[in-house]
Design brief:
about 375 residues, mainly alpha, Double Stranded RNA Binding Domain, two-stranded antiparallel ribbon, about 45% helix, about 10% strand
Length: about 375
Protein backbone atom coordinates (compact mmCIF):
# COMPACT_ATOMS: atom_id res chain seq x y z
CA UNK A 1 0.00 0.00 0.00
CA UNK A 2 1.21 3.49 -0.71
CA UNK A 3 1.25 6.32 1.75
CA UNK A 4 -2.15 7.98 1.80
CA UNK A 5 -3.95 4.76 0.85
CA UNK A 6 -7.01 4.35 3.15
CA UNK A 7 -5.86 0.84 3.89
CA UNK A 8 -2.45 1.95 5.06
CA UNK A 9 -2.27 2.32 8.83
CA UNK A 10 0.56 4.77 8.38
CA UNK A 11 -1.76 7.39 6.88
CA UNK A 12 -1.04 11.12 6.82
CA UNK A 13 -1.32 12.83 10.22
CA UNK A 14 -4.81 14.00 11.11
CA UNK A 15 -5.27 16.46 14.01
CA UNK A 16 -8.46 16.59 16.08
CA UNK A 17 -8.91 20.20 14.96
CA UNK A 18 -9.43 18.81 11.43
CA UNK A 19 -12.61 17.07 12.44
CA UNK A 20 -13.84 19.26 15.32
CA UNK A 21 -16.21 22.18 14.71
CA UNK A 22 -15.77 25.08 17.11
CA UNK A 23 -18.00 28.06 17.73
CA UNK A 24 -17.24 31.33 19.44
CA UNK A 25 -19.65 32.31 22.29
CA UNK A 26 -21.19 34.90 19.92
CA UNK A 27 -21.77 32.32 17.16
CA UNK A 28 -23.09 29.78 19.66
CA UNK A 29 -25.68 32.30 20.89
CA UNK A 30 -27.12 32.58 17.34
CA UNK A 31 -27.95 28.84 17.11
CA UNK A 32 -31.45 27.65 17.94
CA UNK A 33 -31.96 24.74 20.42
CA UNK A 34 -32.29 22.08 17.66
CA UNK A 35 -29.02 23.21 16.05
CA UNK A 36 -27.22 23.10 19.38
CA UNK A 37 -28.53 19.60 20.03
CA UNK A 38 -27.37 18.46 16.58
CA UNK A 39 -23.92 19.92 17.24
CA UNK A 40 -23.59 18.08 20.54
CA UNK A 41 -24.73 14.79 19.02
CA UNK A 42 -22.28 15.06 16.11
CA UNK A 43 -19.36 16.04 18.33
CA UNK A 44 -20.03 13.18 20.78
CA UNK A 45 -20.08 10.71 17.87
CA UNK A 46 -16.83 12.20 16.56
CA UNK A 47 -15.14 11.91 19.96
CA UNK A 48 -16.26 8.30 20.30
CA UNK A 49 -14.87 7.42 16.86
CA UNK A 50 -11.55 9.08 17.58
CA UNK A 51 -11.27 7.43 20.96
CA UNK A 52 -11.92 3.99 19.43
CA UNK A 53 -8.91 4.32 17.07
CA UNK A 54 -6.76 6.35 19.42
CA UNK A 55 -4.27 3.51 20.05
CA UNK A 56 -3.46 3.22 16.32
CA UNK A 57 -2.46 6.89 16.18
CA UNK A 58 0.44 6.91 18.57
CA UNK A 59 1.71 10.30 17.38
CA UNK A 60 -1.42 12.07 18.65
CA UNK A 61 -2.76 12.40 22.18
CA UNK A 62 -6.36 11.80 21.19
CA UNK A 63 -7.51 11.48 24.80
CA UNK A 64 -6.18 14.92 25.80
CA UNK A 65 -7.70 16.54 22.73
CA UNK A 66 -10.97 14.76 23.45
CA UNK A 67 -11.06 16.07 27.00
CA UNK A 68 -10.14 19.55 25.82
CA UNK A 69 -13.05 19.66 23.39
CA UNK A 70 -15.39 18.24 26.03
CA UNK A 71 -14.36 21.04 28.42
CA UNK A 72 -15.10 23.62 25.74
CA UNK A 73 -18.52 22.12 25.15
CA UNK A 74 -19.16 22.05 28.91
CA UNK A 75 -18.16 25.70 29.20
CA UNK A 76 -20.65 26.61 26.48
CA UNK A 77 -23.43 24.77 28.25
CA UNK A 78 -22.64 26.51 31.56
CA UNK A 79 -22.49 29.86 29.78
CA UNK A 80 -25.96 29.24 28.33
CA UNK A 81 -27.43 29.36 31.86
CA UNK A 82 -26.88 33.12 31.89
CA UNK A 83 -29.46 33.41 29.09
CA UNK A 84 -31.82 30.59 30.06
CA UNK A 85 -31.81 31.32 33.81
CA UNK A 86 -31.29 27.62 34.54
CA UNK A 87 -30.20 26.92 38.13
CA UNK A 88 -29.60 23.18 38.50
CA UNK A 89 -27.94 23.28 41.91
CA UNK A 90 -30.45 23.64 44.76
CA UNK A 91 -29.65 23.89 48.46
CA UNK A 92 -31.46 21.25 50.50
CA UNK A 93 -31.36 23.43 53.62
CA UNK A 94 -33.05 26.59 52.35
CA UNK A 95 -34.11 25.86 48.77
CA UNK A 96 -31.92 28.54 47.18
CA UNK A 97 -30.78 27.58 43.66
CA UNK A 98 -27.56 28.37 41.78
CA UNK A 99 -26.38 28.36 38.16
CA UNK A 100 -22.84 27.33 39.04
CA UNK A 101 -21.56 24.52 41.21
CA UNK A 102 -18.82 26.67 42.77
CA UNK A 103 -21.42 29.19 43.97
CA UNK A 104 -23.54 26.35 45.32
CA UNK A 105 -20.56 24.93 47.25
CA UNK A 106 -19.75 28.34 48.76
CA UNK A 107 -23.37 28.79 49.82
CA UNK A 108 -23.52 25.37 51.51
CA UNK A 109 -20.73 26.46 53.86
CA UNK A 110 -23.09 29.08 55.33
CA UNK A 111 -25.16 26.21 56.78
CA UNK A 112 -22.25 23.96 57.75
CA UNK A 113 -20.14 26.80 59.17
CA UNK A 114 -17.12 25.43 57.30
CA UNK A 115 -14.36 28.00 56.69
CA UNK A 116 -11.54 26.24 54.85
CA UNK A 117 -9.60 29.35 53.80
CA UNK A 118 -7.46 30.64 56.66
CA UNK A 119 -5.32 33.78 56.75
CA UNK A 120 -1.70 32.91 57.61
CA UNK A 121 -1.13 36.39 59.01
CA UNK A 122 -3.89 36.61 61.64
CA UNK A 123 -5.59 33.20 61.63
CA UNK A 124 -9.00 34.50 60.54
CA UNK A 125 -10.90 31.95 58.43
CA UNK A 126 -13.31 32.41 55.52
CA UNK A 127 -15.80 30.27 53.62
CA UNK A 128 -14.72 31.65 50.22
CA UNK A 129 -11.25 31.90 48.72
CA UNK A 130 -12.11 35.24 47.10
CA UNK A 131 -13.03 36.68 50.52
CA UNK A 132 -9.64 35.59 51.85
CA UNK A 133 -7.91 37.32 48.93
CA UNK A 134 -9.76 40.57 49.69
CA UNK A 135 -8.95 40.19 53.41
CA UNK A 136 -5.23 39.75 52.65
CA UNK A 137 -5.18 43.29 51.30
CA UNK A 138 -5.53 44.48 54.91
CA UNK A 139 -2.09 43.01 55.61
CA UNK A 140 -0.44 43.93 52.29
CA UNK A 141 -2.00 47.41 52.11
CA UNK A 142 -3.01 46.78 48.50
CA UNK A 143 -5.81 48.99 47.18
CA UNK A 144 -6.35 48.07 43.55
CA UNK A 145 -9.48 50.13 42.91
CA UNK A 146 -8.71 53.82 42.41
CA UNK A 147 -11.26 56.55 41.75
CA UNK A 148 -10.45 58.55 38.61
CA UNK A 149 -12.36 61.55 39.94
CA UNK A 150 -10.56 62.11 43.24
CA UNK A 151 -7.74 59.55 43.35
CA UNK A 152 -9.07 57.77 46.43
CA UNK A 153 -8.20 54.06 46.45
CA UNK A 154 -10.13 51.12 47.86
CA UNK A 155 -9.37 47.61 48.99
CA UNK A 156 -12.77 46.19 48.11
CA UNK A 157 -14.59 46.56 44.77
CA UNK A 158 -17.99 47.03 46.43
CA UNK A 159 -16.69 49.95 48.53
CA UNK A 160 -15.22 51.43 45.35
CA UNK A 161 -18.59 51.16 43.54
CA UNK A 162 -20.41 52.81 46.47
CA UNK A 163 -17.83 55.63 46.51
CA UNK A 164 -18.25 56.30 42.77
CA UNK A 165 -21.91 57.10 43.35
CA UNK A 166 -20.88 60.07 45.51
CA UNK A 167 -19.57 61.73 42.33
CA UNK A 168 -22.48 60.79 40.07
CA UNK A 169 -25.30 61.09 42.66
CA UNK A 170 -26.55 57.76 41.34
CA UNK A 171 -29.21 56.20 43.55
CA UNK A 172 -29.95 52.74 42.15
CA UNK A 173 -32.02 51.42 45.06
CA UNK A 174 -35.60 52.69 44.83
CA UNK A 175 -38.51 52.03 47.19
CA UNK A 176 -41.42 50.50 45.24
CA UNK A 177 -43.97 51.95 47.65
CA UNK A 178 -43.03 55.63 47.69
CA UNK A 179 -40.36 56.00 45.00
CA UNK A 180 -37.64 57.29 47.30
CA UNK A 181 -34.18 56.27 46.08
CA UNK A 182 -30.95 55.50 47.95
CA UNK A 183 -27.27 55.06 47.15
CA UNK A 184 -26.90 52.01 49.39
CA UNK A 185 -29.01 48.87 49.60
CA UNK A 186 -28.79 48.87 53.41
CA UNK A 187 -30.36 52.35 53.47
CA UNK A 188 -33.26 51.10 51.34
CA UNK A 189 -33.78 48.10 53.64
CA UNK A 190 -33.89 50.41 56.67
CA UNK A 191 -36.32 52.78 54.89
CA UNK A 192 -38.72 49.93 53.98
CA UNK A 193 -39.33 49.34 57.69
CA UNK A 194 -41.20 52.67 57.80
CA UNK A 195 -43.82 51.09 55.53
CA UNK A 196 -43.88 47.68 57.20
CA UNK A 197 -43.70 49.04 60.76
CA UNK A 198 -41.01 46.48 61.61
CA UNK A 199 -38.73 47.50 64.49
CA UNK A 200 -36.16 44.73 64.83
CA UNK A 201 -33.83 46.49 67.27
CA UNK A 202 -35.21 46.27 70.82
CA UNK A 203 -33.74 47.71 74.01
CA UNK A 204 -33.23 44.98 76.61
CA UNK A 205 -33.48 47.53 79.42
CA UNK A 206 -36.90 49.03 78.71
CA UNK A 207 -38.30 47.11 75.74
CA UNK A 208 -38.46 50.09 73.39
CA UNK A 209 -37.93 49.08 69.74
CA UNK A 210 -36.35 50.97 66.84
CA UNK A 211 -36.15 50.88 63.04
CA UNK A 212 -32.36 51.31 62.97
CA UNK A 213 -29.55 49.77 64.99
CA UNK A 214 -27.83 53.17 65.22
CA UNK A 215 -30.94 54.67 66.86
CA UNK A 216 -30.90 51.87 69.44
CA UNK A 217 -27.22 52.58 70.17
CA UNK A 218 -28.03 56.26 70.76
CA UNK A 219 -31.02 55.32 72.95
CA UNK A 220 -28.87 53.04 75.12
CA UNK A 221 -27.01 56.10 76.36
CA UNK A 222 -30.10 56.82 78.48
CA UNK A 223 -29.42 53.62 80.41
CA UNK A 224 -25.61 53.71 80.44
CA UNK A 225 -25.35 57.44 81.18
CA UNK A 226 -22.80 57.86 78.39
CA UNK A 227 -22.32 61.42 77.16
CA UNK A 228 -19.78 61.30 74.33
CA UNK A 229 -20.04 64.95 73.22
CA UNK A 230 -18.11 67.34 75.46
CA UNK A 231 -17.95 71.11 75.02
CA UNK A 232 -14.35 72.35 74.75
CA UNK A 233 -15.34 75.77 76.06
CA UNK A 234 -17.05 74.85 79.33
CA UNK A 235 -16.65 71.07 79.71
CA UNK A 236 -20.38 70.35 79.65
CA UNK A 237 -21.15 66.90 78.20
CA UNK A 238 -24.11 65.83 76.09
CA UNK A 239 -25.77 62.55 75.29
CA UNK A 240 -26.87 63.61 71.78
CA UNK A 241 -25.06 65.41 68.98
CA UNK A 242 -27.72 68.02 68.11
CA UNK A 243 -28.08 69.49 71.63
CA UNK A 244 -24.28 69.56 71.74
CA UNK A 245 -24.16 71.54 68.50
CA UNK A 246 -26.80 73.95 69.76
CA UNK A 247 -24.90 74.40 73.03
CA UNK A 248 -21.60 75.10 71.24
CA UNK A 249 -23.23 77.86 69.24
CA UNK A 250 -24.45 79.42 72.47
CA UNK A 251 -20.87 80.39 73.31
CA UNK A 252 -20.72 82.62 70.25
CA UNK A 253 -24.32 83.91 70.06
CA UNK A 254 -25.41 86.93 72.07
CA UNK A 255 -28.03 86.09 74.72
CA UNK A 256 -30.16 89.20 74.86
CA UNK A 257 -33.32 87.63 76.33
CA UNK A 258 -32.92 87.30 80.10
CA UNK A 259 -35.33 85.81 82.61
CA UNK A 260 -36.08 88.44 85.28
CA UNK A 261 -36.82 85.81 87.91
CA UNK A 262 -33.67 83.68 87.75
CA UNK A 263 -31.32 85.57 85.45
CA UNK A 264 -30.95 82.80 82.88
CA UNK A 265 -30.40 84.23 79.37
CA UNK A 266 -31.42 82.99 75.93
CA UNK A 267 -30.54 83.84 72.35
CA UNK A 268 -34.17 83.89 71.17
CA UNK A 269 -37.45 84.99 72.72
CA UNK A 270 -39.19 81.65 72.07
CA UNK A 271 -36.74 79.81 74.33
CA UNK A 272 -37.21 82.43 77.07
CA UNK A 273 -41.00 82.13 76.81
CA UNK A 274 -40.80 78.33 77.13
CA UNK A 275 -38.45 78.69 80.12
CA UNK A 276 -40.78 81.06 81.95
CA UNK A 277 -43.36 78.28 82.26
CA UNK A 278 -41.17 76.81 84.99
CA UNK A 279 -41.89 79.90 87.11
CA UNK A 280 -45.52 80.43 86.08
CA UNK A 281 -46.31 76.67 86.11
CA UNK A 282 -48.22 77.19 82.86
CA UNK A 283 -49.08 73.96 81.05
CA UNK A 284 -50.60 74.96 77.72
CA UNK A 285 -50.72 71.47 76.18
CA UNK A 286 -53.74 69.51 77.39
CA UNK A 287 -54.67 65.96 76.42
CA UNK A 288 -58.23 65.77 75.06
CA UNK A 289 -58.61 62.15 76.08
CA UNK A 290 -57.63 62.31 79.75
CA UNK A 291 -57.24 66.02 80.52
CA UNK A 292 -53.59 65.76 81.60
CA UNK A 293 -51.65 68.96 80.89
CA UNK A 294 -48.01 69.45 79.91
CA UNK A 295 -45.51 72.26 79.96
CA UNK A 296 -43.67 71.24 76.78
CA UNK A 297 -44.86 70.14 73.34
CA UNK A 298 -42.58 67.07 73.13
CA UNK A 299 -43.86 65.77 76.50
CA UNK A 300 -47.42 66.22 75.32
CA UNK A 301 -46.76 64.41 72.02
CA UNK A 302 -45.14 61.50 73.83
CA UNK A 303 -48.14 61.23 76.16
CA UNK A 304 -50.64 61.31 73.26
CA UNK A 305 -48.98 58.27 71.71
CA UNK A 306 -49.67 56.32 74.89
CA UNK A 307 -53.40 56.48 74.07
CA UNK A 308 -53.01 55.24 70.48
CA UNK A 309 -50.59 52.36 71.13
CA UNK A 310 -52.19 49.03 72.08
CA UNK A 311 -51.53 47.86 75.65
CA UNK A 312 -51.76 44.10 75.54
CA UNK A 313 -49.45 43.36 78.49
CA UNK A 314 -51.44 43.62 81.74
CA UNK A 315 -50.13 43.35 85.28
CA UNK A 316 -51.98 40.60 87.15
CA UNK A 317 -51.28 42.29 90.47
CA UNK A 318 -52.80 45.71 89.89
CA UNK A 319 -54.35 45.59 86.42
CA UNK A 320 -52.12 48.26 84.89
CA UNK A 321 -51.48 47.63 81.18
CA UNK A 322 -48.39 48.26 79.06
CA UNK A 323 -47.62 48.31 75.35
CA UNK A 324 -44.41 46.29 75.78
CA UNK A 325 -43.67 43.13 77.71
CA UNK A 326 -40.31 44.53 78.86
CA UNK A 327 -42.02 47.57 80.40
CA UNK A 328 -44.36 45.23 82.29
CA UNK A 329 -41.33 43.32 83.59
CA UNK A 330 -39.81 46.56 84.90
CA UNK A 331 -43.17 47.49 86.49
CA UNK A 332 -43.41 44.11 88.25
CA UNK A 333 -40.41 45.09 90.40
CA UNK A 334 -42.82 47.34 92.35
CA UNK A 335 -44.68 44.22 93.47
CA UNK A 336 -41.74 41.82 93.82
CA UNK A 337 -39.40 44.34 95.48
CA UNK A 338 -36.60 43.36 93.09
CA UNK A 339 -33.75 45.89 92.86
CA UNK A 340 -31.26 44.58 90.29
CA UNK A 341 -29.00 47.64 90.13
CA UNK A 342 -26.49 47.69 93.01
CA UNK A 343 -23.94 50.43 93.64
CA UNK A 344 -20.42 49.00 93.96
CA UNK A 345 -19.28 51.92 96.10
CA UNK A 346 -21.91 51.90 98.82
CA UNK A 347 -23.97 48.77 98.22
CA UNK A 348 -27.25 50.61 97.78
CA UNK A 349 -29.69 48.91 95.36
CA UNK A 350 -32.15 50.41 92.92
CA UNK A 351 -35.23 49.28 91.09
CA UNK A 352 -34.62 51.30 87.93
CA UNK A 353 -31.48 51.92 85.87
CA UNK A 354 -32.26 55.66 85.67
CA UNK A 355 -32.30 56.00 89.48
CA UNK A 356 -29.12 53.97 89.68
CA UNK A 357 -27.37 56.27 87.18
CA UNK A 358 -28.39 59.40 89.10
CA UNK A 359 -27.07 57.83 92.29
CA UNK A 360 -23.75 56.91 90.65
CA UNK A 361 -23.26 60.47 89.45
CA UNK A 362 -23.61 61.54 93.05
CA UNK A 363 -20.46 59.57 93.86
CA UNK A 364 -18.64 61.14 90.92
CA UNK A 365 -19.44 64.65 92.18
CA UNK A 366 -18.79 63.81 95.83
CA UNK A 367 -16.43 60.90 96.61
CA UNK A 368 -17.75 60.71 100.19
CA UNK A 369 -19.73 57.50 100.83
CA UNK A 370 -23.32 58.69 100.77
CA UNK A 371 -24.45 55.85 103.02
CA UNK A 372 -22.52 57.47 105.89
CA UNK A 373 -23.95 60.93 105.39
CA UNK A 374 -26.52 61.90 108.01
CA UNK A 375 -29.54 63.65 106.58
CA UNK A 376 -30.24 67.08 108.19
CA UNK A 377 -33.40 67.48 110.22
CA UNK A 378 -36.09 69.38 108.34
CA UNK A 379 -36.74 72.89 109.74
CA UNK A 380 -40.32 74.12 109.70
CA UNK A 381 -40.62 77.80 108.84
CA UNK A 382 -43.57 79.44 110.58
Amino acid sequence: MTQGDPGNLEMDSVAIEDVAVNFTPEEWALLDPSQKKLYRDVMRETFRNLASVGKKWEDHDIEDSYKKQRRKLSSFRIHERIHTGEKPYECKECGKAFSYYSSFQSHERIHTGEKPYECKECGKAFSRHQTLKIHMRMHTGEKPYECKECGKAYRCYLSFQIHKRSHTEEKPYECKQCGKAYKHYSSLEAHKRIHTGEKPYECKECGKAFFHNQTLKIHLRLHTGEKPYECKHCGKAFRYYFPFQKHERSHFVEKSYECKQCGKAYSDYGSLRTHKRIHTEAKPYECKQCGKAFRYSFSFQKHERSHTVGKSHECKECGKAFSRHQTLKVHMRLHTGEKPYECKQCGKSFRYSSSFRIHERGHERNPVNVSHVVKPTAITVP
